[in-house]
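Contributing new records

If you add data, match the layout below exactly. Sequence lines come first and carry their own label; structure lines follow with theirs. Keep one chain per record. Anything else will be rejected by the validation script.
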Amino acid sequence: MKLGIDIGGTFTDLVLMNEQTGELRFGKTLTTYPDPTQGILNGVADLQRDHELDLASLSEIVHGTTLVTNAIIERKGAKTGLITTAGFEDVLEIGRELRYDIYDIFLSVPEPVIPRNLRLGVAERLDKTGDVLLELEQSNLEQAVKNLEAQGVKSVAVSFLHSFTNPEHERRVGKFIREAYPDLYCGLSSEIMPEIREYERTSATALNAYVQPITDHYLQALEAKLQALGFRGVINIMISSGKLTTIEGASKTPNQQLESGPAGGTMAAVFIGHTIEQSNVLAFDMGGTTAKASVISDYSPEITHQFEAARVMRFKKGSGFPVRIPVIDMIEIGAGGGSIARVNNLGLLPVGPDSASSQPGPACYGLGGQLPTVTDADLVLGYLNPDYFLGGNMKLRKDLAEASIQTHIAEPLGISVIEAALGVHRIVNENMANAARVHILESGLDPRRYDMMAFGGAGPVHAFGVARLLGS
């Protein structure tokens, strides 16, 4: 028996597979905040109750999660410090001095996850070939780490100039921290991203150190809780390249999980493509918060090393933190089921990017949400069965959805509730189709030659409309 678990912004999904018979069983629960392990345990409890699951019979758990991405976007990582070559303390803010929108006079860039007072330089210097120009000053290093520890830092990123050619100085820092401050997490750029370009390397190392404590605590807690219920198998974590890693690997380099959940869906599309002998597939993932698409050509997803986390402008390249890791090339193409629709000051109807998430959720959940969402529109249009949501475990309130759309969209625009709901549905489809078309054409490909595979909670609801607009 194997169990697949995916944590999204709104729902936690579970799939139980019997490898001998091919039988599948499904579970779905609301994602729980601030402890997402509780949502997993709720789903496992449902599987145990409904299908007599014995966790001792599980040989493997495969887990995808948005924990790392959300921690960076929401700035909920650990207090982190940076030790770098003296004079390079501001590289995270200077970056490449590129403007992602040259005409925006109010342009903003993401604030570094490590504030200036926690970025300390130490005396050391290598040249571009790795030869030592200035030996690492031990007393300077010891004072820097002492200062960071005194300020309550939980994790330390270490990034020295040219350390990708000679990691010796960074290794000395790591050895010192592990021996003198065993409770501190420590990440070295020569291990996280041993490549040229100090800004990108420092950015990747800083982000990794920022999320490492919470990722490690989460994975250790999850493993312990499952073992307490009788699980004795292996837990593998999906990473951004579509491959799997161990608990230990995921804890050491959590930035490899930035696209963990969507990567799992793309690899599922690769598998389905092989099964139906369709080599060109557009994987369309629409969840509760966002929608993404990836292109699969000749049974292989496109891999890129140019990835950005936590963009200030979701669709603007250069507005986020660069992280040079192998990742399945995906385009974020619009809203999710929980994305909020509203009438703006111009009388237009934008949808998203903000989401109702799982708490309070769309109005139709009956959990206190007041604003209309894509899910509310889909329910009013009859695309969702109010009596069979979450497999019948959750009843949707169509009356609340209609009231929310009536108050916030229909009345301000002077149209009916059905027209307002249809407007939301069509706008979302158009936005996603346009973004997907541009992404495919930029790769020199023809969207009409790709079959679409839809997944995610809202993917199948909108798949037909998006595919029709793309000509798939």
